[in-house]
Amino acid sequence: MTVQETTLVPGLAGIPAAESAVSYIDGQVGILEYRGHRIETLAEHSNFEETCWLLLYGSLPSKSELDGFRARLREHRDLPERLINVIRALPGVGHPMDALQASLAALGMFHRKEDYSSREECDEAIVRIIAAVPVMIANFENFRAGRDYVQPDPKLDTAANFLWMINGTVADELITRVLDVALILHADHTMNASTFAARVVASTEADPFTVCSSAVGALTGPLHGGANERVLDQLKAIGAAENVPAWLDATLAAKSKIMGFGHRVYTTKDPRATILQDLARDLFETHGMTPAYETALALEAEVLQRLGSKGIYPNVDYFSGMVYAKLGIPTDLFTPVFAMSRVAGYLAHWREQMTDNRIFRPTQVFVGSHDAAYTPLELR
Ligand code: CMC
Asked: Any residues with Cβ below 6 Å from ligand 1, and which?
């Protein structure tokens, strides 16, 4: 298909940007697959580390492949001393997503290779990035809270180790499983804005650390990964379930967006939201309700009644914020936790882009002027 130079599709909606075998969405039915595996199956039977391997290498690992991958992830969590000092020096008042973007770029300065054409070099970068991201996020949190650097625990996998590093206690099985599943659910999502950013940067043959730090920048915005943080702010602003109808009247009258609802691709409920909602129910029933959760259930019912026919349903970010808050994760770490998982997807897309690369160079619809007269400064 040739797209006319004069045809602008805002947001490139519906325009393919790459061929990809990493993940698949049917937005009308509500299907998400990673390498052909339904997300519901992975959420039930897999774990974050296995899901990373699946996304990166295209099929489920054997036991020895998975054991080796897990062991290498645990080994590569130790950060260089000077990188720890870089993270310590970052302003604690800054947003942790900015800290993560800066830390990822800095990580690359310690480990960047000239060339990523061999499988060994790619694999080493992949493991370093996936292993280091949770450690960098958790220790930015520790430093800004006035605590010392917390060493990762080599006995724990990604989810349990992250909770240990920020909360100082080993979480119970349910809490660990909830975070592990949330990581599985966020690991890839076809050609979303930050993955597209990753592929654009990859297409320049930039190194994988730069690819991931650029993509993390794209993930920060409130229309993308930043929505989960705003969902919780929104629920706090509503205050209680009985305030929902009046709040919604005012929000819709102001033509404001309801955070955690709507999606470019899904016109039905995001399957990740359904999985997280079920987990949230177990979590809140076991560990106690919160006002935010009760308000969220009331808001969901009211929005579905008023906007469901327009295809506006909850997306993954609607439940992730409430769940993360219950796990003791501070609100502004919600998007970094999303990034902790999504780097696996970025790296899978980086590998794919590099197998058949052509630098991205789209065109534009020019709407400026020509032949402008240059007026000397003193005459303006
Ligand atoms: N609240 C109220 N109305 C909405 C919402 C919403 N959250 N989302 C879409 N709409 C309406 C919108 O007003 C428009 O109505 P109309 O046709 O009458 O003007 C119609 O639905 C289409 O909306 P759009 O903004 O053109 O859709 P889009 O595909 O460009 O945007 C979106 C998708 C996710 C950016 C948008 O739904 C949104 O801003 N949602 C809130 C932010 C959010 O939850 N983001 C997380 C997305 S999921 C995680 C991720 O991928 O990062």
From this structure: 11, 189, 192, 223-225, 227, 257-264, 310, 312, 315-317
